[in-house]
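Format notes (please read before filing issues)

Several people have asked whether sequences and structure tokens are stored in separate files. They are not. Every record keeps both together, in the order shown below: the sequence lines, then the token lines. Line labels are part of the format and must not be stripped during preprocessing.
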Amino acid sequence: LILAFLAVSAALPTSAAFSPPRFTTSKPSPSSSHLHRRPIGSVPSSSSSLSSTASSNSEDTTKIASIEEITSFASSNGVELKFTTSGPGYRGVAVEKNDPENILGYIEGFIRPAGKILHADKMEIFKPALNSARREETGFSGGGTFLGPGLLIAFVCFLHGKENGCEMVEFLAIDDAEFQHKRLIRYYKTAGFEEVRYVGEELKDIPDRLVWGGCGTLMTNELDGVLQKWTRIIRGASGV
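Then the structure lines:
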């Protein structure tokens, strides 16, 4: 059980104790990755099933990292991970290991009731929080990989989706500004995702805009493939 493992290993508070980022007055930084405009809401904690058993598919023999491996890697790089669920909804949060009130970022979404798809509503990484952690903690490395703490949060969320029968993940790289949107697309492609189509302001895009709450590029990929790629990145950073 992912929630039980995180609670026992780090004695983390539930989402009911989740407080807004301390940097609420700062402007969104270029590194913030908005998938959806909906503000954060408190998600009550409940148990969800996620075993520690790693998996692989027929196209790639990489053994997907377990929840223990991910949380251990995160901790060694100055990050603690929290994960909570409420019904089909989920939220993953990364905080500074030595200052749990310093929220580095979060991802929230839900498991779609049909289609075996993990839907990621929103992802945001707080650059001021990262800078604060670097100043206060010499052992903090920004998440341990070039993809930052976002990879660690997403890994836990994706493991949750996989254990609940999801095969694909989908999200919208929001288009608030052309330059920022291009940066998001490059980041997510580097992370292993593929472009599906652009959701714009035409009539044919209305159903998608109702789902996502804005315009942007719809991106997706298979969970196993992404998790295997990320496992190689994490183990490479660990020297394994």
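For reference, the curators noted about this record: The CA atoms of residues 21 and 177 lie 23 Å apart. DSSP finds seven helices and seven strands in the chain.
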